[in-house]
Amino acid sequence: xxxxxxxxxxxxxxxxxxxxxxxxxxxxxxxxxxxxxxxxxxxxxxxxxxxxxxxxxxxxxxxxxxxxxxxxxxxxxxxxxxxxxxxxxxxxxxxxxxxxxxxxxxxxxxxxxxxxxxxxxxxxxxxxxxxxxxxxxxxxxxxxxxxxxxxxxxxx
Length: 156
Known about the structure:
Elements lengths: L15 H11 L8 E5 L5 H8 L4 E5 L8 H4 L4 E4 L13 E6 L10 H7 E9 L19 H10 L1
Parallel strand pairs: 1-2, 1-4, 2-3, 4-5
Helix pairs in contact: 1-2
């Protein structure tokens, strides 16, 4: 694995773990004993964070192949679901928690999937990337006008 993809703290297989850790703390979400789905798992930063925080099982859903870190592939608590579009994902059970870091597509396309996968009362934590929520013509040098960001958050 390249050093660039590792997180700065060294605790997780990617920086995504630190991002999810901050969100779980901010929203007071306890992963202990929970079953989770990680949509857009990629290298597995979110999956790694959930496992280190006590998740019983994580379904790592990823459209790519061979991207998930070897350490996570070997963990019996991880169900690797490669070559799987998260929008069409089906799981053998409902989950307590859905986490998502899905690029290249607007989040509203994934919300119905998250709701379908969750148990009643389940929680969902997603990484919002404003540049994927607007038309390309609305971007300035690849970025969303800061004045529009709040509107995007409320729209999603």
